[in-house]
Amino acid sequence: MKKKSSFSGQIGFVLAAAGSAVGVGNLWRFPYLVAKDGGGLFLIIYIVLVLTFGFTLLTTDIAIGRKTGQSAIAAYETMRPGWKKLGILTFCVPMLIMTYYAVIGGWILKYFTVYLTGDFAAAAKDDYFTDFITDPSSVWFGLIFMLLTGFIVYNGVEGGIERCSKFVMPILLVLVVGIAIFSLTLRSGDESGAVRTGLDGLKVYLMPDMSGLTLSRFLQITLDAMSQLFFSLSVSMGIMITYGSYVQKEVDLNKSVAQIEIVDTGVAILAGMMIIPAIFVFSGIDGMSAGPSLMFVALPKTFYTMGKAGYVIGLVFFLLTAFAALTSCISVLEAITANCMEVFHTERKKTTGVLTIIYLIATAVIALGYSVFYVEVKLPNGSTGQLLDIMDYISNSFLMPLISVFSTILVGWIVGPKWIAEEMEHPNGKFSRKHLYNIMIKYVAPFIMVILFLQSTGLLDRLLAVVA
């Protein structure tokens, strides 16, 4: 089935796909995982995984989309009759993510407005973030972010998504590089006369920390890096299948996949260079253990410690983070919109309008999950979470690894890797990493995805406990 909508060309597609991939996961989750998982050790493992697993999953999704010309639900059924359920399962991922992504976007928007108004001293207080999200009025920031997302998707693929990505992505890349360079120039001293510099922080970031490394810890770091791939590359959630369906046949998918890998991984690495040296200079090693609260608690404290320069850097940082969150949020809503248009045979503007209303309500409910609708639920992986954490766990920790297991089996063993290779070889007959793809999709990826699924659901620890 041919679509009326499409990207204007390779640059438009790569920027839109990279915009989807470059999100909050790169600017927030990646740096704290690096700090937690041995610095350069995590970096090495992650880059290897990007070039193998990331390449395999990204290639699969984009090729499926372009070859079928359809979004996830219809695409899997077209590939193999009887596999529509996998498409429905894939559709559920963006459907769940969309309930809370605008909430996180709203948090970022709040911090941007705080810095814009010059009240950045308030954001550095210990309880500022908690006070904000537990205040019911915080819902308005999420609703504004959701409305902006809906407006851009409403305007279509080339006129909305591609135009936004072409404007936002170059600015984002320049800002990331600029702040990363500035972070390396930072220095501070304490009462003892010891001096910490940004270059010292860079060493902490890049040098592999092998202390206390065991097989169990190595496996955990590898699984952390693998889970980051899902966040980072937007794979196994139908987004890249949808974007692939908008790619014209003359576009070289080999180059596109490589360019998306480079941009996405490059931004993640630069994000670490932005954040870790700055945290190290002003808070030392202890500040780098902030974990998930790094963006909204540790960083504002660091920016405040910098003085006037910190105000400017903080303002720019939350601006680029808002851009990254917006491009990712757009891709999530677009995946849902495209599937609904195909299933219900409706036009874009009506579909987007209805979905925007639905997700405005969902955004409000999730945002109020820290106040009006507060709950605490014990999750299978052992953590305790609120409404946002529940949606995140189901979509990212349960469904995405499960979808990857079935999709690699479908491509590797049922329709065969040749089905993907044929699309990757169009139009110039080249698929430079064909042999690597065949090995990964048939043998390596299914096995590792099963392990990741068992680990993310807490089943792996139980199985190991039984064996032990």
Describe the structure.
With 468 residues, the protein is an all-alpha fold. It has a single domain, classed as Hydantoin permease. The protein is built from 20 helices and four strands. The strands form two sheets. Strands 1-2 form a two-stranded antiparallel ribbon. Strands 3-4 form a two-stranded antiparallel ribbon. Strand 1 and strand 2 form a beta hairpin. The radius of gyration is 22 Å and the shape is globular. The model has no long low-confidence stretch (mean pLDDT 87).
Rg from alpha-carbon coordinates: 22 Å
Query: What is the CATH superfamily label?
Result: Hydantoin permease
User: How many extended strands?
Assistant: 4
Distance between the termini: 53 Å
CATH topology: Hydantoin permease
Average of the residue pLDDT scores: 87
Name of the CATH architecture: Orthogonal Bundle
- Model regions low in confidence, pLDDT < 50 over at least 5 residues: none
The tally of domains stands at 1
- Give the strand order, joined by hyphens, for the main sheet: 1-2
- Give the number of helices: 20
Helix content: over 70%
Report on the biggest sheet. 2 strands, antiparallel
- Percent in strands: under 5%
Q: In CATH, what is the class?
A: Mainly Alpha
Task: Report the principal-axis shape.
Answer: globular
Q: Which class best fits the helix and strand makeup?
A: mainly alpha
Write the element-wise H/E pattern from the N-terminal end onward.
HHHHHHHHHEEHHHHHHHEEHHHH
